[in-house]
C-alpha cells in the first residue's frame, strides 16, 4: 500500500487519537463498554454517523433513520441543510452533530458506533481506514473502493478489527438475486460457461482531458477536503464534484465501478466466480491526454474452473454497446431493462435479468413458464441497510455484501478498468490473484495501487 511521506508523520497522531478515544470512552462509559466488546443491545439504537449526506448519502441516511443519526459530515454545508430539511429528517433535526472534516468528527465523537460512507470513490478507503482503527462498523456505498490494493486493505482490516461491514449494492439484498442463485444451483441453466453484462451508462462526461482555468470556491464548500486523497486541482463549477466526478480517474471508477456492483454482482454471486485470471478490453478513444474513462468499452474477464463448475467467460459492455441479441429472445422484447441487464448462458437454458438482479426470467418465456421453480434455499434479506444494522446488534447474524465478498467483486471490476486503460498495449492481461499482480505487464501493475495526498493516507 503506497503511503505518502507526510502521511507517515500522522501515524503518531493516529495512535494518540486512538488512545484519546479509548480514554474518553472510559470516562463516559458508553454502552459498548458496558456490554462487552462491540456489544449493542438489540433494543438500543445505534449511533450512526454519515460522511457524505447528499444524493445517495441522503438516501442511505433515510434508510437508517430508525437508528440514532448521531452526526452528519459533509464538505458542502448546502447538502447538510438539504438533508436536515427533509420531512423524514424530523426525528433528528437539531440533534445530529455537524462536521465538515471526518477526521475531526472521529476524534471528537467516541460515542459513534458506525459510519455510513457515501462520498466519491477516492475517499471511501481513507475515511474507512480512520474509522476501522477506532472499531467503527462500516457501510460503504458502492463501489467499495478506488483501487485493487484498497479492496484488499478493507477486507483485511475488517477482519482484524472485527467490525460489521457492508457495501451498498442494494440489489444484493433483493428477491431477484436469491432467485438467480437458486435457479442456477437447481440446474435450470445446465452448465454455464458464458455471461454477458451491459449498461446504458455513462450519463456523465467521459472521454475528455483536463479543462483549463478555475472558478471561485463557494463559501459553503471546502474544496480541499473534497479533493482529499487525490492530486489537487483547481475548483471548477460542476466540472468535478456534483455528479460528474464518476468519470474522472482521480475521483471515480467509471461505468464498471458505478454499475458493476448492480449488474456483475448477480452472476458473480450465483456462479461463485472469485477473481479472474485473464482480463482484456477494447474501448473508444483513450490516450495519455485523457483523464477520464472512455465513452464506451467492452471488457472480457476469464474465470478459472472451480469445483464442478467449468471456466467462465464474462463480457462487460457499456456506452451503448450490447451483446448480440439471443435468437431465442422473442422479437420486440427488451433485453434486460432500460438501464442494462445480464444474460447467463447455459447449455440447457439462458437466464436474463435487469439491473439489481430484478425480473429474472428464463428465455424464451415458454421455457420460463415450464420451469418448475425450486423451494427457497437462501434466507431472505430485510434489506441491505437492515442486514448491517441487525448484524451490529446481533453478531450471530451476517451481512451478505461484507468486505470479503464485496472486496473481491470490486477488485474484479477494477481489474476491468485497468484492462481498459491498457487496451492500447494489445495484450490479454494475465492476473495472479494470490499475489495481486499481473504477470505479463508491469505497466498494468502500476494501476493496482496509488499515492495519497498528505493528510489523507491509509495510516
Automatic annotation (TrEMBL):
Pfam families: GFO_IDH_MocA, GFO_IDH_MocA_C2. Residues 46-166 form the Gfo/Idh/MocA-like oxidoreductase N-terminal domain. It comes from the Bacteria. Residues 214-280 form the Gfo/Idh/MocA-like oxidoreductase bacterial type C-terminal domain. One of its GO terms (molecular function) is nucleotide binding. Coiled coil: none annotated. PANTHER family: BCDNA.GH03377, NADH-DEPENDENT DEHYDROGENASE-RELATED. This is Oxidoreductase. It comes from OM182 bacterium MED-G28. The lineage of its organism: Bacteria, Pseudomonadati, Pseudomonadota, Gammaproteobacteria, OMG group.
